[in-house]
Amino acid sequence: MPTIIDGKKVSADIKDEIKLQVEAMKNEGKRAPHLAIIIVGDDGASHTYVGGKITACKAVGFDYTLMQFAGTISEDKLLKHVDQLNADEDIDGFIVQLPLPEHISVEKVTASISPEKDVDGFTNENFGSITSKAPLLMPATPLGIMELIKRYEIETQGKNCVIIGASRLVGAPLALMMSNDANATVTLCHKYTEDLAAHTRQADILVVAVGKPGLVSKDMVKEDAVIIDVGTTRVEDKTKKSGFKLSGDVEYAEVAPIASYITPVPGGVGPMTIASLLINTLQAAKNNLK
After folding, report:
1. Which residues pair with 122 in a beta bridge?
2. Phi and psi at residue 118, to the nearest 5°
3. Residue 183 contacts residue 163 (beta carbons within 8 Å)
4. Mean pLDDT of 68-76
5. Active site (annotated) includes residue 157
6. Is 63 one of the catalytic residues?
C-alpha cells in the first residue's frame, strides 16, 4: 500500500511553525503580518475558500481585512481598491479571490497588484522569478506541492516528472520549480498532447491538475509512481449533507494500490495552498518590516 501524503498534517505543522515566528516578531516589538482579501460576488465555493483563509490567519496570529463587493462592481472601482491596498503600508499582502465576474479582466486585475504584496504569486514579476537565484513570492499551489515533496523526502533528482495541465496557476510554474529546484526531468502535458497515457506511464512523479474527475486510471500509471492529484471538482452526491463531494483527477481507489505515494482528495494538496499563502504573507511582512 502507498504512503498517503497528508496535506492536512503538513499544513498544520507549517501553521505551528508560522505561529511561533509571529510570536517572535511581536516579542521584538513588531506588528503581526496583515493579509487583505478581496472577494467579488456571491459564489458559494469562493466564500468557503475565503472562510478557510480567514480561519488560517486567526490560527497563526495574522491580522486580516476582508473586503466584500457585489458582483456588479465595475472593473475601474475594483482596480481602485487594489491600488489602495498597494499603497497601504499596514497591508503586507493581499489576494483577489477568483473567479471574478465576466465583465472584470482577471489579467488586468492581476497586473495591477504590486509584486511585493502578491501573496498568490500570480504576477508576471513573481512568476518570472521562479528560476532566479533570488525568487520572490512563489505561486501558492505549486509552492505547496514542493513543500509536500520536500517534507516527505521524495526523491526528485533525475526522476521523470510528468505534469498534466499547463495552467498559469499550477502546471506551468510547477514545471519550472521541478526542473530548476528539484532537478527533475519534466514533461508538461496539455489538451493538445497526443497519446497522454504514453507520457504518464513514464512518470516517476505524476502531477495531475486539470479539474476533470477520473482522468487518470490505473492503466496510465506505472508501478511505484508518486501521484500528486491537484484536481478538486464538485460532483453531485445526494448522500452528502452538502449535496456534493470533492473529486480528484485520479481514480484513487484503483491507482492508490500501485502507487508509492499518493495525495487524497480532499486532504492532500488543497490544505497546502492555504499554508503557502501564509508562508508568502509572512515573507512579505518580513520584507515590509525590515
Report:
1. none
2. -80, 75
3. no
4. 98
5. no
6. no
Q: Which helix (H) or strand (E) holds 233?
A: strand 233-236
List all residues 6 or more positions away from 206 whose beta carbon is below 8 Å from its beta carbon: 161, 162, 164, 200, 216, 221, 225, 226, 227, 228
pLDDT reported for residue 238: 79
| Amino acid type, 39 | I
Q: Of residues 6, 92, 118, 120, which has the active-site annotation?
A: 120
Please say if 181 is a catalytic residue: no
What mean pLDDT comes out for the span 89-102? 97
Please pick, among 53, 92, 118, 159, the residue that the annotation labels catalytic.
Answer: 53
140-269 has which fold? Rossmann fold (3.40.50)
Q: Taking 80 as the threshold, does the pLDDT of residue 237 lie above it?
A: no
CB 39, CB 67: distance < 8 Å: yes
Superfamily grouping for domain 29-114: Leucine Dehydrogenase, chain A, domain 1 (3.40.50.10860)
**Selection from 230, 235, 241 nearest residue 271 by Cα:** 230
Residues 6, 15, 92, 97: which is the catalytic one? 97
Instruction: Give me the count of residues in the chain.
Output: 290
> Same CATH fold, 140-269 and 29-114?
yes
Distance CA 199, CA 186 (A): 11
Residues in a beta bridge with 161: 186, 205
User: Can you say whether the dihedral through the CA atoms of 75, 46, 173, 288 is positive or negative?
Assistant: positive
What residue segments make up the domains of the chain, in order of their start? 29-114, 140-269
* 180 φ/ψ angles, rounded to the nearest 5 degrees: -85, -45
pLDDT of residue 290: 78
Instruction: Output DSSP code: residue 257.
Output: G
Q: How many Cβ atoms are within 10 Å of 254's Cβ, its own excluded?
A: 14
| Grid coordinates of 123 | 504576477
